[in-house]
Structure formats: structure tokens, C-alpha cells
Write a structure and sequence with these properties.
- By secondary structure, the chain is an alpha/beta fold.
- It has 10 helices and 11 strands.
- It has 2 domains: about 200 residues, Nucleotidyltransferase, domain 5; about 60 residues, 2-Layer Sandwich (Alpha-Beta Plaits).
- About 30% of the residues lie in helices and about 25% in strands.
- Helix 6 packs parallel to helix 7.
């Protein structure tokens, strides 16, 4: 956050008194300050973003991918940028107008382009984990495009940080940056969103930890997926109120919760809907976002 001086110093102090927030532009990755080799290094993280021609990783293709490797220390601070990878892909069919409007990519820009799978895989494979803002979307596409990194666990800066618990009133990338005193001049290209995500990860939460430190810690906690099976029509309103989602592929209502909450959920469902079946599956950061 910007620090304001008194009336004898920075005149911006007067602006601050009027309730105006001054935002700083995010840092470019090429200008990222190197903190030196950490005495106690943390994991290497590959921050990834993809733009796609649709929403289904089984049928739609990645049309743009960007990745940046970051070295962390034991406190979850980013000490340097280790490398980057980027690629465009011609999907072989025209883009929908809404995709062009969202990403700025066009059929002409993508014509004849091909992602260098080996090069991008080699960069990401150096990481201990992959991170994306909304990993549930990116993970499916990345695993299909780059099978050589399918073994890596995932971290989600959208869901692995308790944004509301820290007093934030939204979770969109640009909105979170603004609440941390930053803004991204451009968005919705893969490279710009990777840069924005890394800047957000480096900011400090009210708890005193970096965003990256909290995301890493929460991602590694094993949770339990509760699947509710059977004739769930009569129970669906209650399940939705309790935060369950319907999986159209597996045809079950599900929720991912902590171990103690899982005991309570199973007890509640068994008591109120004894004909339904409850299946519990441990979820680690290797299975999450699949």
C-alpha cells in the first residue's frame, strides 16, 4: 500500500484524507527484483495461464499458453523469476467472436501457429507445483496439452486463499490487485494474466503472510470429497443450500470439505435422507482441480 506523508511532505497526504486510493502499476517480469539466492529456499512454482477456444478440455483446444517459473523462499516470498515460456496455437477452425473479444486473439494472428510442446514442458517440468488463478479451469487443459507435467500438483490462488476471511470483497484477479494497491494495464491474454498473478502472489495479507505462502499451505492440506449418490431429487434444494455442486459427468452431488466437516456432513445426510449413499474420497493437491 502507498504510504502518505503529512501536510509538510508529500501533497498526496491531502488526497488520502479525501478517501482516494492511489494504485501502482504491476511490475513487469523482466524488471522483477532479484532478492538473491535464499538461505532457506522454498519450492519452485510454475505460474500458468491458458486461453482456450471453449470451456471443455476434452474437445476444445488451448490457443495461448504462458508460464513463468518463480523461486520462493521458506517464507513464501518470490526471490526471482527463473524462466518463462509462451506459445500460440492455431485450433484449425475459426474462433467464436466472443473468444476474440475476450482474448484479443484472432484467426489471422493464430494462423499457422503451433505451441512448442517440448519447450513449454521443459520449463514447467522444473517446478515443484503449478499455480493458476482458477486452477480448476486451467488444469484440465494443461494436463491434456502437456502430459509430461501431469504428475505435478496444483495450487489455486483463487480458492486456496481465504480472501473473504481477510476482508476482501471479491476474488477476480483485477479486483484483488486493486485492493492490494495495484493495477494491471492489460488483462485476458495469457502472458498478462501470468504477470498479474505473480504480482498478486507477492503481496502481503493482513495476516502478515504473502498470498503465495497462504495458497501453498492451504493447497497441501488433504480434504475430503463427499459424493451423494442415489435418488437425490428431493434432497437437491438442501444440498445446494449446504454448498454442494452437481457433477453432470458423474451424476452426483459433491462437496469438498475438511475431515471434521466430512463427519458432520455424512451424519446430516444419513439422518435426513437415509436412502442416499455417501461416498468419501481423500483429495490431495495432486487430485484437486481434476
Amino acid at each position: 500500500m502507498n504510504k502518505m506523508m503529512d501536510a509538510d511532505g508529500d501533497p498526496a497526504a491531502g488526497i488520502a484524507e479525501q478517501g482516494v486510493r492511489i494504485l501502482r502499476p504491476i511490475a513487469k517480469l523482466d524488471d522483477w527484483p532479484r532478492m538473491g539466492d535464499p538461505a532457506s529456499p522454498g519450492p519452485v512454482i510454475a505460474v500458468v495461464d491458458v486461453e482456450t477456444e471453449g470451456l471443455d478440455p476434452e474437445t476444445d483446444q488451448v490457443i495461448e499458453i504462458a508460464a513463468a517459473l518463480v523461486q520462493t523462499d521458506s517464507e513464501g516470498r518470490i526471490t526471482c523469476i527463473l524462466g518463462k515460456a509462451y506459445g500460440l496455437q492455431d485450433p484449425g477452425r475459426p474462433l467464436m467472436p466472443k473468444i476474440t473479444a475476450l482474448t484479443g486473439l484472432s484467426d489471422a494472428k493464430l494462423e499457422g501457429q503451433a505451441i512448442d510442446i517440448g519447450k513449454v514442458t521443459a520449463v514447467i517440468a522444473r517446478a515443484d507445483a503449478i499455480l493458476a488463478h482458477s486452477a480448476r479451469f486451467d488444469a484440465g487443459f494443461v494436463r491434456r496439452l502437456l502430459p509430461g507435467v501431469a504428475h505435478l500438483p496444483w495450487v489455486c490462488s483463487l480458492n486456496d486463499v481465504d480472501w473473504r476471511g481477510h476482508g476482501f470483497d471479491g476474488r477476480a484477479l483485477g479486483h484483488l490487485l486493486a485492493q492490494q494497491g495495484l493495477f494491471a494495464p492489460k488483462a485476458h491474454t495469457a502472458g498478462d494474466d501470468v504477470t498479474a498473478t505473480i504480482n498478486l502472489l507477492a503481496t502481503v495479507l493482513p495476516s502478515g503472510r504473502t498470498v503465495l505462502a497462504e495458497a501453498l499451505a492451504n493447497a497441501q492440506v488433504t480434504t475430503t470429497r463427499i459424493d451423494v449418490e442415489g435418488q437425490t431429487f428431493d434432497a437437491k434444494a438442501d444440498l445446494k443450500r449446504r454448498g454442494y455442486h452437481f457433477d453432470w459427468v458423474r451424476k452426483v452431488w459433491w462437496s469438498e470439505v475438511g475431515e471434521l466437516q466430512a463427519d458432520y456432513e455424512e451424519s446430516w445426510i444419513t439422518r435426513h435422507y437415509p436412502r442416499l449413499r455417501v461416498r468419501r474420497t481423500p483429495i490431495t493437491w495432486h487430485e484437486r482441480h481434476c
